[in-house]
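In this section we walk through a basic example: taking a raw amino acid sequence and producing a predicted 3D structure, encoded as discrete structure tokens. The instruction is simple. Fold the sequence below.
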Amino acid sequence: MMKKKHKGLKITACVLAVLVLVYGVLALWPRPTNFLLDNPMMKDGDLPILIAHGGGNREFPDNTLEAFYNAYSVDPRVMMETDVSITKDGVVILSHDISLDRKTNVTGLIEEWNYTDLMAQKVDFGYTNPVEEDEDGINRLAGELTHFTDENGAEKYPTDVPYPAGVSPRDQQVFLATTLEDLLVAFPDNRINVEIKQYGETGFRALKEILRLLEEYDAFDRVVLASFHDELYNEYKRLQKAGEVPKEFMYSPGVGGAATFFVLQTLGLDALYRDGMCVFQLPTDQYGFNLATEGLVDTAHRHNLAVHYWTINDKEEMKQLIAIGSDGIMTDYPHRLKEVYDGYQ
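The resulting token sequence is shown next.
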């Protein structure tokens, strides 16, 4: 009986020794360069990229061309974060929701509206209406229409925007629908983060049209695609692996991909992380875990991956993210973040 016990202990010890050896090898294994080109999502200097969330959606109505002009007035190098959905007639428009109920003076799913009708009816995207989620998780109007106001309670209109020279308001009163093409044309040199909000067949239709636009405007080297839908993230990876997109093609993982990297880097096993994406877009904490650490940022950099944090509106939190070396800070208040940056000059 004792011999069997000793034999069992020896086997257990051998297994543990092998596991420790494998762990040690993996921990010391060279980290892969996940994004193979120079990474445009890395910060340009000592300060993170100023990223306007929806164009800075506490200063002007989000995902409107006017909001992005406002952000551009703060910093001509601003990176623009936007959400998109495709209309019934195949136009990709900017919208945080897949319905129109929360942000406009009409209702209904974007995929059920024609872009031509949105423009013909001068649908106004300058609202922040009360909504409730239906059984499918879609925002539906649940009260009176409420026009957008800034943090001081002032209503904003297109004429309030500080436009660059040579640019005039599209309309005096109405924040008209904005297309992704509008954004690419108006800001030909700015980096843009595009999150696809729709899913299923409609989401794939949106992706196909976005890829066509990126090719037409030669924008693969400045536009990064994102989505919280795993089916779209998996399609990004498939397109890249199959060589169906240019080598400059950039994408960001959803919750699953980011969580995988966080766990692996915590265990020192990030050499196993092989996704060819280019940037993590993270909250500062999730499920009680602190994601805003210098260690996480440094580990990502060893993979040639950038780290952007959202949505940061507190000045002290902005300073903390500067201190840990983050590559981008996404905010609803571009002017506020610029004030913080100016303090480092």
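Looking at the output, two observations stand out. Residues 17-23 have pLDDT under 50 and may be disordered. The two ends are 75 Å apart (CA to CA). In the next section we compare this with other chains.
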